Recover the amino acids of this structure.
């Protein structure tokens, strides 16, 4: 099964990090992604630019509204994701636990709903 | 003046398993017994503050729980099934003398670890039925979604009832295997399943203290089983070093660098006494060997060095006994301490084909540290990176990153 790991962390905490802390964090993510690749579970993943660069689009009754910022204004922001291919939810949770984001924020694990199973 | 809530709490802690085992033993319906018991505790909290705490609160709870369960049986079952069930209940009520009800806790533990119960759910089931922990707490400890854990527990209890797993303590030839399953479940509740890199330090999980308590209950009911004594010793050795695993700054401290002063020496002495007691029964097994390894590690408190040759021989014995790749890693590390890192690496190389190790951090951490010592720098870097990527604990991750940086 494929799952997406949605990584929510506090962007401000990242901005106030020292150079050394930031490179340690980056190295952790790289090692994590590589460990997943080596185990054959890594389908792909990306880091997202800060929520200040986000915009939301909503069309209601034929009228489109565009707003600055993320959909939900929360203490922690969606900052990146990984898609993994694992045997079951337990395996997905064990990879989520290893994600550096689990120690600095939260990692939401969502099974992907394949189109063939709609 | 003791208030009702705290009295109920004390009774819950001391007698939960006793009451539950008593309620479930005859009918085999653990879920119904849990419901009845939780109703009885709720009734106590409503009743005791006004009317005062009864003279024998445990008997009061048992009587209320039994009544609740009979009510529930009447409500939910067909007339015929209810009649059978009520006859069983009446039978049970008349057989147990109220003042000295039989203790079925040991039978309950064997039911939880019965071969008909899926191995992965045995420890969670024992934590819930014997200690009364809720599914959400258990789920986090076993890194499972709470809803999933809840379903697994419900299914396991259904299985106990439908397979009519008997509430009895196995005897004779059956005993050794069945006890092993109980001990394995307790140990699963204790450890996260990982030992720390290159130091044979067991990582206690969030429920380590609960597991120790389970084992103490087991030993109080089954005092002459050397493997049960060995398991308790093993867990106490590890628990005695809990504080020493972190520096004041929160950094990870591996076993070989822990100051002896940070170990709980009273707990270590207790573990040593248990291990000696197990030894007098002269029936060796996995947990006694593992405890003996820990004993050889803490020998450092007297002789300033761990007893590596002894550790190697013990792991050799364990490897022959269990065939476990985890043991093989620790054996290779011990071999490296005795005969040099090259010998350790050669012993690890045999494991390289094992697919399970692709996700097993201690393998990579051990390999990295041995490669660093033989001077194979780029191989060591790769192995450290794998270990870092697999490590969930940020403090250990930092430690591994420092080791990686130290390679230069």
């Amino acid at each position: 099964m494929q799952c997406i790991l949605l990584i929510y962390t506090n962007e401000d905490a990242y901005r106030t990090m020292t150079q050394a802390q930031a490179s340690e964090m980056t190295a952790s993510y790289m090692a994590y992604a590589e460990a997943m690749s080596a185990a054959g579970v890594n389908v792909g993943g990306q880091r997202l630019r800060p929520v200040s660069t986000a915009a939301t689009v909503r069309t209601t009754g034929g009228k489109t509204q565009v707003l600055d910022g993320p959909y939900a204004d929360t203490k922690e922001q969606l900052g990146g994701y990984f898609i993994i291919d694992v045997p079951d939810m337990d395996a997905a949770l064990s990879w989520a636990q290893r994600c550096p984001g689990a120690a600095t924020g939260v990692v939401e694990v969502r099974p992907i709903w394949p189109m063939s199973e709609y | 003046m003791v208030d009702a809530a705290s009295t109920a709490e004390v009774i819950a802690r001391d007698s939960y398993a006793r009451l539950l085992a008593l309620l479930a033993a005859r009918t085999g319906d653990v879920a119904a017994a849990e419901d009845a018991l939780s109703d009885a505790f709720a009734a106590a909290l409503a009743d005791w503050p006004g009317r005062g705490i009864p003279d024998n609160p445990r008997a009061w709870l048992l009587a209320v729980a039994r009544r609740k369960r009979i009510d529930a049986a009447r409500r939910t079952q067909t007339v015929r099934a209810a009649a059978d069930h009520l006859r069983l209940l009446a039978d049970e009520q008349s057989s147990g003398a109220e003042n000295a009800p039989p203790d079925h806790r040991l039978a309950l533990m064997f039911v939880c670890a019965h071969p008909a119960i899926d191995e992965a759910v045995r420890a969670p089931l024992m934590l819930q039925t014997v200690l009364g922990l809720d599914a959400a707490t258990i789920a986090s400890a076993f890194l499972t979604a709470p809803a999933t854990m809840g379903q697994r527990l419900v299914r396991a209890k259904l299985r106990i009832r439908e397979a009519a797993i008997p509430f009895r303590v196995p005897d004779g030839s059956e005993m050794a295997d069945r006890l092993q399953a109980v001990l394995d479940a307790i140990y699963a509740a204790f450890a996260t399943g990982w030992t720390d890199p290159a130091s044979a330090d067991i990582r206690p999980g969030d429920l380590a203290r609960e597991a120790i308590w389970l084992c103490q209950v087991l030993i109080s009911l089954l005092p002459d089983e050397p493997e049960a004594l060995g398991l308790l010793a093993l867990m106490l050795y590890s628990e005695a070093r809990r504080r020493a695993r972190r520096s004041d700054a929160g950094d990870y401290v591996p076993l070989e660098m822990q100051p002896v002063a940070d170990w709980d020496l009273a707990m270590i002495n207790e573990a040593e006494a248990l291990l000696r007691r197990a030894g007098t029964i002269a029936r060796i097994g996995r947990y006694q060997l593992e405890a003996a390894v820990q004993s050889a590690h803490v020998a450092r408190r007297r002789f300033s060095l761990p007893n590596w040759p002894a550790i190697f021989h013990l792991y050799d014995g364990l490897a022959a006994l269990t065939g476990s790749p985890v043991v093989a890693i620790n054996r290779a590390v011990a071999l490296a301490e005795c005969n040099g890192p090259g010998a350790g690496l050669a012993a690890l190389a045999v494991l390289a084909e094992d697919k399970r190790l692709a996700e097993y951090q201690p393998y990579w951490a051990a390999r990295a540290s041995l490669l660093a010592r033989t001077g194979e720098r780029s191989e060591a870097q790769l192995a450290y990176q794998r270990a870092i990527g697999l490590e969930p604990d940020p403090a250990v991750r930092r430690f591994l990153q420092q080791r990686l940086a130290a390679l230069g």
Observations:
- The longest helix of chain B spans residues 4-25.
- Residues 1-100 of chain B form one domain.
- The mean pLDDT of chain B is 89.
